[in-house]
TrEMBL record:
<feature type="binding site">
    <location>
        <position position="82"/>
    </location>
    <ligand>
        <name>substrate</name>
    </ligand>
</feature>
<feature type="active site" description="Proton acceptor">
    <location>
        <position position="81"/>
    </location>
</feature>
<feature type="binding site">
    <location>
        <begin position="209"/>
        <end position="211"/>
    </location>
    <ligand>
        <name>substrate</name>
    </ligand>
</feature>
<feature type="binding site">
    <location>
        <position position="50"/>
    </location>
    <ligand>
        <name>substrate</name>
    </ligand>
</feature>
<comment type="function">
    <text>Catalyzes the sequential condensation of isopentenyl diphosphate (IPP) with geranylgeranyl diphosphate (GGPP) to yield (2Z,6Z,10Z,14Z,18Z,22Z,26Z,30E,34E,38E)-undecaprenyl diphosphate (tritrans,heptacis-UPP). It is probably the precursor of glycosyl carrier lipids.</text>
</comment>
<feature type="binding site">
    <location>
        <position position="222"/>
    </location>
    <ligand>
        <name>Mg(2+)</name>
    </ligand>
</feature>
<dbReference type="InterPro" id="IPR018520">
    <property type="entry name" value="UPP_synth-like_CS"/>
</dbReference>
<feature type="binding site">
    <location>
        <position position="203"/>
    </location>
    <ligand>
        <name>substrate</name>
    </ligand>
</feature>
<feature type="binding site">
    <location>
        <position position="33"/>
    </location>
    <ligand>
        <name>Mg(2+)</name>
    </ligand>
</feature>
<dbReference type="GO" id="GO:0000287">
    <property type="term" value="F:magnesium ion binding"/>
</dbReference>
<dbReference type="GO" id="GO:0045547">
    <property type="term" value="F:ditrans,polycis-polyprenyl diphosphate synthase [(2E,6E)-farnesyl diphosphate specific] activity"/>
</dbReference>
<comment type="subunit">
    <text>Homodimer.</text>
</comment>
<feature type="binding site">
    <location>
        <position position="84"/>
    </location>
    <ligand>
        <name>substrate</name>
    </ligand>
</feature>
<keyword id="KW-0479">Metal-binding</keyword>
<feature type="binding site">
    <location>
        <begin position="78"/>
        <end position="80"/>
    </location>
    <ligand>
        <name>substrate</name>
    </ligand>
</feature>
<dbReference type="InterPro" id="IPR036424">
    <property type="entry name" value="UPP_synth-like_sf"/>
</dbReference>
<protein>
    <recommendedName>
        <fullName>Tritrans,polycis-undecaprenyl-diphosphate synthase (geranylgeranyl-diphosphate specific)</fullName>
        <ecNumber>2.5.1.89</ecNumber>
    </recommendedName>
</protein>
Length: 305
């Protein structure tokens, strides 16, 4: 009886959370942490933790499609993970190979038009995993509804370091002028990655750090971050909705901050001298409380067309 009541209450809360959301992130990146710790807690083999974690990954894709999220990036295997015992590595590689091929053949993936891509230093992976990556990418190459990036042999710091070296070499060789070193020059030297900036990073398992994950795509966009206690195999839809609520709250706070900074600049130098600030103010003023909006209309609205 108690279990049924708890399940009913959870269902009501989940629906309430979804009803309260007014927007969702375009790109969610997930650090799937806690598979091994979950297995130890449950008295299971480490490999079973990874298998159950893969089931959560399948569920996440379904939730993302329901919530109209455009892109999901999963931190599946980092360059540091190569330091694990050989038997664990072989089990992980077996599972990754199996799941990539299963996803590539799954009816749900094709019905939802999910495009699968792997990102990272893929040449470090066993040939059988590289073959599975190639298979999954070829099978879904024509889709564009939901992008699924699987980060394998991935290290954000290493990626940025290699890009910096390439830029330095291009400058030294005379192929790139120092004054032309800009965002585009760096981005074109990163290995192929997400199609858009990250809006929200989710990390399970209780650790509050982003572990060098997508630093270029997340930090530059000031992505929201949601840390939660459940291990990845325990992660539920209700946890995902809480993460999205964190994104929404951060987005609202960011809009207020932009509007207030623009208002301060307009007040300091005048609307005519700060056209960019005036545009920002016009864009984000609706994020401010009504009293502040009214003050803006009284002070600068005539010049803020």
């Amino acid at each position: 009886m108690l279990t049924r009541v708890r399940a009913l209450a959870q269902g009501v809360y989940e629906r309430m959370l979804e009803w309260e959301l007014s927007s969702t992130p375009s790109h969610v990146a997930v650090i799937q942490d806690g598979n091994r710790r979950y297995a130890r807690k449950e008295g299971k083999e480490t490999t079973e933790g990874h298998v159950e974690g893969a089931e959560t990954t399948e569920a996440l894709l379904h939730w993302s499609d329901e919530l109209d999220i455009d892109e999901v990036t999963l931190y599946t295997f980092s360059t540091e993970n190569f330091n694990r015992p050989e038997d664990q590595l072989e089990a992980i590689f077996d599972l990754v190979e199996e799941k990539l091929r299963a996803f590539a053949d799954a009816d749900r993936v094709h019905e939802n038009e999910v495009r699968i891509r792997a990102i990272g230093e893929l040449e470090m992976l066993p040939e059988r995993v590289q073959d599975a990556i190639d298979y999954a990418e070829r099978r879904t190459a024509s889709y564009d509804r939901l992008h699924l990036n699987v980060a394998l042999a991935y290290g954000g710091r290493s990626q940025l370091l290699n890009a910096a070296r390439d830029v330095a070499s291009a400058v030294a060789d005379g192929d790139l002028a120092p004054e032309n070193v800009d965002v585009d020059a760096v981005e074109e030297r990163l290995y192929e990655g997400p199609t858009r900036d990250v809006d929200l990073i989710v990390r399970t398992g209780g650790d509050e750090r982003t572990s060098n994950f997508l630093p270029w795509h997340a930090n530059g966009n000031e992505a929201a971050v949601y840390f939660c206690a459940p291990y990845w195999p325990e992660f539920r839809r209700i946890d995902f909705l809480r993460a999205i609520r964190t994104y929404e709250n951060r987005e609202e706070s960011w809009r207020k901050h932009r509007a207030r900074r623009a208002l301060a600049l307009v007040r300091a130098v005048g609307a005519a001298e700060a056209p960019k600030a005036r545009q920002v103010l016009g864009r984000f003023k609706d994020a401010l409380p009504s009293a502040e909006r009214e003050a803006i209309e009284d002070e600068v609205e005539p010049a803020a067309d």
